[in-house]
Amino acid sequence: MPEIKEFADSLLERCTLPPAGSSLDCAVSGGPDSVALLVLAVHAGCRATAIHVDHGLREGSDREVELVSDIANSLGARFKSMSVQIDVGPNLEARAREARFNVLPLGTATGHTMDDQAETVIIALLRGSGMDGVAAMKPSIRHPLLRVRRSDTVKLCNMLGISTFDDPTNSSDLFQRNRIRHHLIPLCCDIAGRDVVPLLARHAQLMTEESQFLDDLSMSVDPTDVKSIRSAGKVLARRAIRRWLRSGDQGYPPDQAGVERVLEVAYGFSKGTDVVPGIHVSRSRGVLSKVYISGQQADSGSMVDSTTVAR
Question: How far is CA 211 from CA 130, 149, 202, 282, in A?
C-alpha cells in the first residue's frame, strides 16, 4: 500500500542503516521497536538476520521465539535463536542486558529509539556519569533508530498488521528505566509544557560533539603516566582517565566519583582504588595500572589480568 511505503520511507530518512545489500544482524525481542528495526532493515534492502535471545525468565518464552521466527519469515529475513540462563535476583535488568551483549554477534543492531535515548540521558544524570554518560548512545549502524520515536515503531507495525509481543516487565516499577519512562518523563513534559524527549535527545547529540572535542584534546595526556596526568588540567585529565577506563568495555562509563578516585591515586592521596565493579586501579613508580577482577569486588586474590605501560 502506498501509504505504508511512504511512511516507511520517511522513517528510513531518519535511520542510520547500512547501504542496501549489506548484511545486518538485528536483535529482535518481538516488541514493536525491534520488529520495526527488522522491517526497516529489510525495506532498506539489507540482508537482515533477526536474532532472538531467550532469557528463560518467563514461562512460555518459546512462543516469543516462534513469533519472531514467523515475523522474520514473513519479511524474507533470516532467523537465529539464542538462549541464556539468568537467575532471578538483584540487578536483573543489568544482568540480562550483559547476557544479551555476550551472545549477540559484534555489531548487532538494536531497536533503541529516541525515547530510549532520552531515558538513557536521565539514567546517566542520576548516576553522575559526566559528559560521556549524558552523551548516551551514538547514532550508528548499531543504533540506527535513535531519531525515530517509539510511537512510530508501533504505528509501523500496526500499519503492516504485525502482531508484536508486549513484555510485561516493561510496565513494572521494579526497574529504574520503567519508572523514568512511565512517571518521570511524563512529569517533566507536564512541567516543561512540551515534549522533552526531543530536547533530551538533542542534548545527548550536543554532549557527543563536545565530548569528542575534549577527547581529541585529551589524547595528548597519557592516563597511565602520573606526570602526564598531573601536568594536564583536571578537565583533560578526567577525559583521559575516563577514556582509559572505558577501553574494551561495552557498559556504562564510570561515574564521576570513580574518575575522581583515580585522580586521587595519580596525585598521591591513595595508592589504589576500586573504580567500577571488576576494575581496580593502583599506582607504582609513577605508573597507573588497571587490574581486571573476576568478581564484583576488587580482591588481590582474584586478579585475572592487568594493564600497565612500562616506563
Answer: 10, 25, 14, 26
Q: Note the pLDDT of residue 21.
A: 98
- 3-class SS of residue 84: coil
CATH number at residue 107: 3.40.50.620
Euclidean distance between the first and the last CA atom of the chain, given in angstroms as a whole number: 67
Q: Residue 306 and residue 300: Cα distance in Å, rounded?
A: 12
For residues 86 and 96, state if they share a domain: yes
d(CA 24, CA 109): 7
**Tens digit of pLDDT for each residue in 80-133?**
999 887 766 666 666 777 777 788 999 999 999 999 999 999 999 998 877 888
> Is the same domain home to 23 and 165?
yes
Average pLDDT for the chain: 88
At 83 the three-state DSSP class reads strand
Taking residues 208-229, what's their average pLDDT?
Answer: 94
Residues 134 and 159 in one domain: no
Domain range holding 126? Answer: 114-144+172-218
- b/e map 72-110, b = 16+ CB within 10 Å: beebebebbeeebeeeeeeebeebbeebbeeebeeebbb
User: Do 165 and 229 sit in the same domain of this protein?
Assistant: no
Comparison of pLDDT for 294 and 1, the residue scoring more: 1
Confidence bin at 246 (pLDDT 50/70/90)? confident
How many structural domains are present in the chain?
3
